[in-house]
Specification:
Layout: H1 2-19, E1 23-25, E2 34-38, H2 40-52, E3 56-60, E4 63-67, E5 70-71, E6 76-80, E7 84-88, E8 105-110, E9 113-119, E10 122-124, H3 127-139, E11 158-163, E12 166-171, E13 174-176, E14 183-186, E15 189-194, E16 197-200, E17 209-212, E18 215-220, E19 223-226, E20 231-235, E21 242-248, E22 251-254, E23 259-265, E24 268-291, E25 296-318, E26 329-342, E27 367-370, E28 377-391, H4 395-398, H5 404-408, E29 431-450, E30 457-468, E31 471-473, E32 481-484, E33 487-491
Parallel strand pairs: 1-3, 2-4, 3-6, 4-7, 5-8, 6-9, 7-10, 8-11, 9-12, 10-13, 11-14, 12-15, 13-16, 14-17, 15-18, 16-19, 17-20, 18-21, 19-22, 20-23, 21-24, 22-24, 23-24, 24-25, 25-26, 25-27, 26-28, 27-29, 28-29, 29-30, 29-31, 30-32, 30-33
């Protein structure tokens, strides 16, 4: 907690300092607000000039400012006043796609310090038009790309990409309609994101917020609606990790996962707090930790998470997708004061790019804690949790029994992409735990609105679990807890 307070203080001092810097109107540099003049060169000239003068603020007033890729440099702050819209060009060649700095984007920064984008204005990537124009270039043979469902694998620009930057502030703005990840902060330190809005559902892979191997980060008071993972932590470098991060008072809607660790997890995550957040209309899980690439996950604290109309509540998973010689770990995860409502229908219906249609019919999946043989998920605490399920599972759809042979037949899928739906059918309706140790469930309630043929909870290869004040609410109540190859299970 002391570390988080230090981050807040540092970021506050940074905000005061940049507000006192010299202020320049965008119009001083011939930047046009008519929505048709391409301003890439003039905006970049303004940024370069302010940077060379030692720093200051570039202010955009009401209007539409058309631009391709611009590079934000140290000690330069962009303010988008209410009514100002930074509009991405629809011409793919107006972006840094041929020699991208790690990832093409409308606004990027590389090894910059003391930078910010603030205000009540908008960054509009016009991502659908950009992506379709890129697809057209691929179809004509001008750009080489292996299209999948007319989804280019490379060259799609995101909204913001900052790499190895320090003392960064993003606040107040709205970011919308990008062709790729909306905003990515990669190996940045002392990052503050506050009061922003993300509305990006126009194309594939529209992650709302990606925090990659960053340290000392606070994300607060923001609304993120995205057609891929809403708030996502990633670790691309096996020598680094996400560390000392807090996400507080945010609302997430997603056609994938609400709050997710992964999927790329080469290094790992440590000391991350997720406090007082809401997730809704989310196709996959409200909260996910996946480490299929060898990364270490430790000291994760989730408190006061409210989720409704989601495909799943909690999904924790170890795998060996890319690094067969290095197995990831998950240790010391606490999730408390959580309420979740799981739906039997498709929760992201209506998105322009919905999550994939699963093999149907299938029954609703339980919350999942799933390690791999020989590597347990360790020290997980679920406290003051209520998860409400629709119930009503039909054994004629995809029957999964609870006899020893039935449970042993569940595939490990350790090298598959980690999603709860991969198993199609699991043997519990409330919680399924496999390859875990030192589990604590305290005041956890599972409710099924209709009778379910499956038991509420299944433990398979669990080594030590303490259960207190467990409740199972289901019509025609049957078996509550099945234990298979599990030891030291204490029920109070």
């Amino acid at each position: 907690m002391k570390r988080i307070k230090t981050v807040f203080l540092t970021l506050a001092v940074f905000s005061i300092l940049h507000l006192s810097a010299a202020e320049y109107k965008a119009s001083y540099f011939g930047i046009k607000s008519n929505g048709t003049t391409l301003n890439t060169t003039s905006i970049q000239k303004a940024i370069d000039y302010i940077h060379e003068k030692g720093g200051g603020t570039l202010v955009f007033y009401v209007g539409r400012y058309l631009t391709g890729t611009i590079e934000l440099k140290s000690n330069v702050h962009i303010v988008l006043r209410e009514g100002a819209i930074l509009v991405g060009s629809t011409n793919i060649y107006d972006y840094n796609i041929e020699e991208p700095i790690f990832m093409p984007a409308l606004v990027y920064a590389n090894k910059a310090s003391n930078i910010s984008i603030t205000g009540k204005g908008v960054i509009d990537g016009q991502g659908a038009e950009v992506a379709y124009n890129l697809v057209d270039q691929v179809h004509k043979g001008i750009v080489e790309d292996k299209l999948q469902l007319d989804r280019p694998a490379t060259r799609r620009p995101g909204g913001i990409y900052f790499r190895e930057c320090n003392h960064v502030s993003i606040s107040g703005i709205t970011i919308k309609n990008t062709a790729f990840w909306v905003q990515t902060y990669d190996q940045c330190e002392n990052l503050r994101i506050d009061g922003i809005t993300v509305d990006s559902k126009v194309f594939w892979n529209n992650d709302g917020l990606d925090i990659v191997d960053c340290k000392d980060v606070v994300v607060s008071n923001s609304f993120i609606d995205a057609s891929d993972d809403a708030i996502c932590f990633k670790s691309h470098d096996k020598t680094k990790r996400c560390e000392n991060i807090e996400v507080r008072n945010c609302v997430a809607r997603s056609s994938a996962n609400g709050i997710k660790f992964g999927t790329v997890t080469s290094g790992g995550y440590k000391n991350i707090r997720i406090i007082n957040n809401k997730v809704y209309d989310t196709f996959r899980s409200a909260f996910t930790i996946a480490t299929p690439d060898g990364g270490k996950v430790e000291d994760i604290f989730v408190d006061s998470l409210y989720a409704y109309n989601t495909g799943n509540a909690i999904f924790l998973r170890i795998g060996t997708r890319w690094n067969k010689d290095k197995q990831g770990t998950i240790d010391n995860v606490t999730i408390q004061n959580m309420y979740a409502e799981i739906t039997a229908t498709k929760p992201d219906a209506g998105y322009g790019y919905e999550g994939p249609i699963e093999d149907l019919p299938r029954n609703v999946s339980p919350a999942v804690i799933y390690g791999i043989p020989g590597v347990d998920i360790n020290n997980v605490t679920l406290r003051n949790i209520e998860i409400v399920y629709p119930g009503g599972s039909n054994p004629n759809y995809a029957y999964r029994g609870t006899k020893p042979a039935d449970l042993d037949s569940i595939p490990e899928l350790i090298d598959s992409y980690p999603e709860f739906s991969n198993w199609k059918e699991l043997p519990a309706w409330g919680l399924y735990v496999r390859h875990a140790s030192n589990l604590t469930l305290e005041n956890v309630t599972f409710t099924a609105k209709e009778k379910d043929y499956r038991p509420a909870v299944v433990f398979d290869d669990v080594k030590g679990a303490t259960l207190s004040r467990m409740q199972y609410n289901v019509p025609g109540r049957g078996k509550d807890l099945i234990r298979h190859k599990s030891t030291r299970i204490i029920q109070k």
